[in-house]
Amino acid sequence: MRKSKRFFCLVLTILFVNTMVLTVAATQTEASASNGIDVSAKSAILMEAHTGQILYEKNADEMLRPASVTKIMTMLLIFEALEQNKLSMDEPVMVSAHAASMGGSQVFLEENETQTVQDLLKCISIASANDACVTMAERICGTEEAFVQAMNAKAASLGMEHTNFVNCCGLEAEGHLISAKDIAIMSRELITKYPQIYDYCTVWQDQIIHRTRKGESIFGLTNTNKFLKQYPYATGLKTGYTSVSKYCISATAKKDDVELIAVLMAEPDIPSRVKDVRALMDYGFSSCKKYVDTAPLEKTSLPVTGGKTDRLDLSIPEQFSYLCMPGESPDQIRRGITLPESVPAPIEQGATVGKIVYSLGDTTIGEVPILAERAVEKMDFKYCLGKLFHRLCIP
């Protein structure tokens, strides 16, 4: 009798476990079918560039070897230095022995050769040149080591929590690791803050001129990012490969008002990388619609009480945008304006006097402040006396 009970319990346990396995498998299948994506990459993420919304991810926080995708951070710091007037595009930069010694992908710069910042940026963006990366790193920070410290500091400031740079170009090094999500974050920072990167990363072929002791020679540059020719909406950004990291990419594409960033890491081969990045981009463009509020303010000014001017001009600092996910529509978004009947002086320029609230159904999805376009001083006795005199003396 006891054996029968044990057998019965064993059968029930097996049936329960099988049911759980089938349920989990069905759930996974359903989730996979819901987006139609099953990438071969070890890690992946799909992000909308302007909102930062994540549309798809797979092991997105796992730290892996990024290869030349590293150069996105290098280019970000170059553009930052240009913005801060620490560099100029036509400035000549001398190549050091250390920079000239870089292996891997390179444009064969020689020690003491000079190239302009613009041409070195071409070499990095188009040809993925390690020697050009180190040359720019040394120009900006003095040494590559100091530049790498700046890379890690920038990563921390952007909230890249799963990143550790060891060099500026992506050559294999112990501890040189980053996650797909962090690659998307730094890619987003680069393309949204410095869209002029597209003037470089979309170029298919170009050239530089080597000027050395041997004389002048032309060196051709061909873009390493074949995705530009493989997808109609592709705009960039950077590929990477080593035998250890396998095939990586941070791809950007734009269609209508939607701009996407797709990151894939540790793809087994090039065909898989191409297939997966296309699948991610197609999914993003087909399932998501972007809402951008281009409507003007219904009220462009407000009455002022107790001020040296009667009305206050209003402005908004930025357009509101929202990425509608599957099942949502831009037509469903409503906006409500909150403004007082009047505002009392004094008022500082840029002070918030109201807001625009955006909602989708019963959910608030964002707000934009309404600002005072200029300052308004509070009226005083002298001002009131002058105004009274003006009324009495001028009919």
What's this model, at a glance?
It is built from eleven helices and 19 strands. It is of the alpha+beta class.
What does this structure look like?
By secondary structure, this protein is α+β, with helices and mostly antiparallel strands. The chain contains 11 helices and 19 strands. It has helices spanning 2-35, 71-83, 97-100, 117-125, 130-141, 144-157, 180-193, 198-201, 227-230, 270-287, 381-393; strands spanning 43-48, 54-58, 92-94, 114-116, 163-164, 177-178, 205-212, 215-222, 234-242, 246-255, 258-267, 289-292, 301-305, 311-315, 321-324, 333-338, 343-344, 352-360, 363-372. A hairpin with a 2-residue loop joins β7 and β8. The longest helix has 34 residues, at 2-35. Residues 7-34 have low confidence and may be disordered.
Termini separation comes to: 116 Å
List low-confidence stretches.
7-34
Rg is 29 Å
User: What's the total count of β strands?
Assistant: 19
Topology:
Blueprint: H1 2-35, E1 43-48, E2 54-58, H2 71-83, E3 92-94, H3 97-100, E4 114-116, H4 117-125, H5 130-141, H6 144-157, E5 163-164, E6 177-178, H7 180-193, H8 198-201, E7 205-212, E8 215-222, H9 227-230, E9 234-242, E10 246-255, E11 258-267, H10 270-287, E12 289-292, E13 301-305, E14 311-315, E15 321-324, E16 333-338, E17 343-344, E18 352-360, E19 363-372, H11 381-393
Parallel strand pairs: 13-17
Antiparallel strand pairs: 1-2, 1-11, 3-4, 5-6, 7-8, 9-10, 10-11, 12-15, 13-14, 14-19, 16-18, 18-19
Helix pairs in contact: 2-5, 2-7, 4-5, 5-6
